[in-house]
Amino acid sequence: MFTKTSWIKLPRNVVVGHDVLGDVRDVVADTHLRGRPLVVTSPTPKEVAAADIVAQYEAAGTDPGLVEVDTASFDAVERVIDAAEAAEVAYLIGVGGGKAIDIAKMASDRCDLGFVSVPTAASHDGIVSGRGSVPEGDTRHSVAADPPVAVVADTGVLADAPWELTTAGCADIISNYTAVKDWRLANRLKNVEYSEYAAALAEMTAELLVESADSVRPGLEEAAWMVVKALVSSGVAMSIAGSSRPASGAEHLVSHQLDRIAPGKALHGHQVGVAAIVTEYLHSGERGDWRAVRDALDAIDAPTTAAALGIDDDELLEALTTAHEIRDRYTILGNGLSEAAAREAVAKTGVV
Ligand SMILES: NC(=O)C1=CN([C@@H]2O[C@H](COP(=O)(O)OP(=O)(O)OC[C@H]3O[C@@H](n4cnc5c(N)ncnc54)[C@H](O)[C@@H]3O)[C@@H](O)[C@H]2O)C=CC1
Ligand SMILES: O=C(CO)COP(=O)(O)O
Ligand SMILES: [Zn+2]
């Protein structure tokens, strides 16, 4: 008897382009969302975009709430929920990098309110995904949350953001190669549910970005366009899968460990990129595709070594040998990488 069910949640309006920041109210008006919003942001994105959005609503006679967050934590989610309830808002607008967007996404899901995603950096593929990523103690949660009802990505804002944020977004996409390899491995060895459509979309997204690497250059709106389209596509792959598997494998586990061992030293996308060189080596060996991963990162100016991340060799080795403990997600790390194997992998790939 056939018993499978799949429920794919996707955004209704995804608006990407030049000067679209000024259209946030119009884009929202095209959805079912009505009333006062709560704008969830962090200090720099507030100046770059959130203040403009607040001004749009004020000019139209609506007084939006505003709350600032600075970390991806469950405490921050609770603070936003309290602010949303106190201000009796009708929906939330997340404005910023991955952390502000994740917090707004999870808070709106918990309050059963709509969510609008306004990225100010092309730095991560959580812009449209139906997931939130939050550390807690020794673990890292990938929380299911309704994806945004609408996304407004202004290519001018994204192109003006610091270049390293864009290269981090590219590296987050390049890591799809190893994430999908880990997913297939987990499917074969542990019967983990797998979607060929989601995997193919995640891989194709990485492929298209790598092929366009020459055009991804600082300050160009065309480059921001290409990268944000890839980030949207990767987020859609996660929504089709109903998990972050198409975009998060062992390289993400290593990055999540680095967030605990060496907090604040490097961007999420850069960490997963460097870790992907090593996990690709583990998948396919010395003659495998790890050079292609490294060269793809290099072509878009993303770091390819621990030193370029600002992370000590020992910190990376600790992350590599303990990453399997962080979450119940089977990957090429299996039940743990030995220190000797980790040393060999980082030496062979030139990551250390
Ligand atoms: N939910 C999901 O599916 C996914 C979630 N993530 C999560 O996203 C986070 C990483 O996102 P990031 O954006 O790298 O980190 P982030 O949100 O900490 O942003 C990095 C920095 O960039 C600044 N920034 C943002 N826009 C700026 C602009 N226009 N000009 C100047 N500075 C600007 C932010 O204020 C922050 O200081 C991690 O917590 C990661 O786990 C990443 C991928 C997928
Ligand atoms: O960062 C992600 C995809 O790029 C998703 O992160 P998780 O590993 O927390 O699911
Ligand atoms: Zn990621």
UniProtKB/TrEMBL annotation:
NAD(+) binds at residues 98-102, 120-123, 129. GO terms for molecular function: glycerol-1-phosphate dehydrogenase [NAD(P)+] activity; metal ion binding. It comes from the Archaea. The keyword NAD applies. Substrate binds at residues 125, 172, 256. Its main location: cytoplasm. One of its GO terms (cellular component) is cytoplasm. SUPFAM superfamilies: Dehydroquinate synthase-like. Pathway: Membrane lipid metabolism; glycerophospholipid metabolism. Pfam families: Fe-ADH_2 (PF13685). Its cofactor is Zn(2+). InterPro entries: G1P_dehydrogenase_arc (IPR023002), G1PDH (IPR032837), Glycerol_DH (IPR016205). The keyword Zinc-finger does not apply. HAMAP family: G1P_dehydrogenase_A (MF_00497_A). PANTHER family: GLYCEROL DEHYDROGENASE, GLYCEROL DEHYDROGENASE 1. Belongs to the glycerol-1-phosphate dehydrogenase family. Catalyzes the NAD(P)H-dependent reduction of dihydroxyacetonephosphate (DHAP or glycerone phosphate) to glycerol 1-phosphate (G1P). The G1P thus generated is used as the glycerophosphate backbone of phospholipids in the cellular membranes of Archaea. This is Glycerol-1-phosphate dehydrogenase [NAD(P)+]. It comes from Halarchaeum rubridurum.
